[in-house]
Amino acid sequence: MSYRDAVTGASELLPRCRFPTDEKTLHVAVSGGPDSVGLALLAHAAGLHLHLHHVNHHLRDDSDRDARCVESLAQHLDVPVTVHHVEVDRAKGVEAGARAARRTVMPADAVTGHTMDDLAETMLINLLRGAGRDGLSPMVGSPTKPLLQIRRHELRDFVEQSLVDFVIDPTNHDRTLVRNEVRHSVVPLLNRVAGRDIVPILARQAYVIAEESSWLDEMTMHDRLLTLESADCRELRTWHPARLARWLRLVLLRDDVDGLHPPTLAEVERVMAVVRGDVTATELEGGRRVARHQQNLSLSVSAPATL
């Protein structure tokens, strides 16, 4: 099948894409793999003005091959491309370091090729990590995730039919990485146990949870305007524990190079003890400390130790 024929065949997938509708340039993150290449092809078929972005982490000897693939794709589509060269800090692990490096160079509104399968896998990973409601509806509603209604195998078939080159990252088969183990072992096992494909089921659950979370956000809109320092513990003690915990997860978000992270359940419970007056202060991850003076709370951050 020719490239032109493949674009015509994109009509089956395009109705399920959720691309931005404004007229500005669409920044597209392209690793060179089939998912991100498929994203670029679909966005181009939709008539959008594209700018491709590729991050070269220099983690593999052949990483320049991926960059060349993306540059070739940009030339094929006649769109601009930027290759970002980064150095990965491996102190917190390769995956976390790579995410942090990408975050520093990639446009904040760049769209990514995450599919319905990625959504389901992320739900399972977050569940294993003890995530709350928001962790069970990841990516849903994000303007940077336009392909959540498309399956990974559909996208791969589309790219293969387009006759456009793509690359396969060999680390995708590294079972020491949690996501790969979930993809290659956990999901197939759950499919066998359920006797059916669980990915659409998990995706539907994610959308249901996202809708309920949106309703909760509306119900607690005024809570979101309340800062930790302006709150009165006497009022907070009258709140339902679930409402208080939800507010604390919001006001105690921790922003680091790897993104925003809510406090753990144990941290929330310790801060709730401060609110109740059981203790006067508690320590949180990241060198943070929540303390109560009379009926007011404060958040302080200790300076990192120097050698």
Description:
The structure is a single chain. The protein is α/β, with parallel strands linked by helices and 307 residues long. It folds into 2 domains: 3-115 and 150-173, Rossmann fold (3-Layer(aba) Sandwich); 223-301. The chain is built from 11 helices and 8 strands. It has helices at residues 3-9, 34-45, 63-77, 94-105, 116-128, 152-162, 178-194, 199-219, 233-236, 241-251, 265-276, and strands at 26-29, 50-56, 81-85, 254-256, 259-261, 281-284, 288-293, 296-301. The strands form 3 sheets. Strands 1-2-3 form a 3-stranded parallel β-sheet, with helices on one face. A 3-stranded antiparallel β-sheet has the order 6-7-8, with helices on one face. A two-stranded antiparallel sheet has the order 4-5. Helix 3 (63-77) links the parallel strand 2 (50-56) and strand 3 (81-85). It is elongated and about 70 Å long.
Compact summary:
This protein has 307 residues and is of the alpha/beta class. The protein has two domains: 3-115 and 150-173, 3-Layer(aba) Sandwich (Rossmann fold); 223-301. Helix content is 44%, strand content 12%.
